[in-house]
Amino acid sequence: MPWLTTHPLLRKALTAAACLLVGSATAVTASPTATAAGTTLGTAAADSGRYFGTAVAAGRLGDPTYSAILDREFNMITPENEMKWDTVEPARGSFNFGPGDSIVNHASAHGQRMRGHTLVWHSQLPNWVGSIGDANTLRSVMNNHITTTMNHYKGKIYAWDVVNEAFADGGSGQHRSSVFQNVLGDGFIEEAFRTARNVDPSAKLCYNDYNIENWTDAKTQGVYRMVKDFKSRGVPIDCVGLQAHFGAGGPPSSLRTTVSAFAALGVDVQLTELDIAQASTTAYADTVRACLDVARCTGITVWGIRDSDSWRGGENPLLFDNGGTKKPAYGATLSALGGGGGTPGGGIVSGTVYTLSAAAAGRVLDQPAGQNGNGTPLQVWDGGGASNQKWRADRNADGSWTLTNTASGRVLDQPANQLGNGTRMQVWDANNGANQRWRADRNGDGSYTLTNVASGRALEIPGGQTGNGAAVQVWDANGGANQHWNFR
Length: 488
Prior knowledge:
Helix content: 25-40%
CATH architecture of the largest domain: Alpha-Beta Barrel
CATH class of the largest domain: Alpha Beta
Number of domains: 2
Radius of gyration: 24 Å
Number of strands: 22
Number of helices: 13
């Protein structure tokens, strides 16, 4: 999404003043973890082992409406500006942790976890750092800043954005020009991560950037190559943050592919600064589902609570309006998370045996009679009520489902490492792999779309093939009837 390239300075202008006013909440409310499961953003996300967080400005904690929503809805907090270099170390060796401490203390008092944001960034950097031209001096300054800041918050931060926005916009796929890049060269990112790991081995270490959500973009590919290289050489990196600042059109169609690709490298993926111009319900729901479809997408953070708190003035990109009222996008997000007070999975009951009927064909998911071995390919066939057409649905800890054929005792399986469109489904011994887990999203007609956690693709019969024996495969979700399944 290359349209959004000026956001660091805009965000600074809109929110820096809030850092200077450090208040405390006037009302104490219960932690999101104390609320009935699935009825708030935080508890609904927690039902699948994820978090749902927000960016917080210390100066707004004294606003009772702001703090009440914060403490009711969110179980992860990211400080907007209070841990950035110009706030934390405005002069060399002179550290100011007061604004950040106020947010950390609030989180601790309300059972919320913290993401640290950010240690090394080219923006919101004091002039004294930007003017350093000697490599040894800058290396010492960078490592001391990382060490001192992380030591201060050691044990209180779930994940750190160690390096933020180091890649250039446009088609180069290379690092952007910055004092760190220009003086220290390409190795500064690796050095920052190694330093961070030495300081706090228990905190997750993340690389965070914007406009890396579209899989084919050069910037996305550049970050992907870096993470792949780091993992191959043992450079300590635990997660990638996709900022997810989207226009009114919502996320790119390849978002799920991007999340899956990074996760396949062995890192967690987090949507770290989500906001969507005009807050389309569809766009928010699609973004949430793209995360839920991938087991290693571990959480979502929106960049602010109310529209009036947003750095994107006039675009109304958040889940609450200026007065703190829930917008339609809130309901769409909660529903996509599986919340709202309904039965998890939209009505599917764990441990129940179902027949899965393809809406387009009227035929059922069938393991060919008498073929019970590993690797047996699946098809659709006229329903007859036999055990080879019955599937037990068991809900997993991440909110996904495992479907076990009652004839063979083997599970619905997308062959391991075969993630592409057209991959045919089979049964295989259960091993709890992501390729054997399926997200169930309720459609408007009461049917379900079943999305494989490993590939992010939907279970389907090929379009136009509705006869007995039609293959069952996965394909990019398109909302077609051939991807709709009824549980009966």
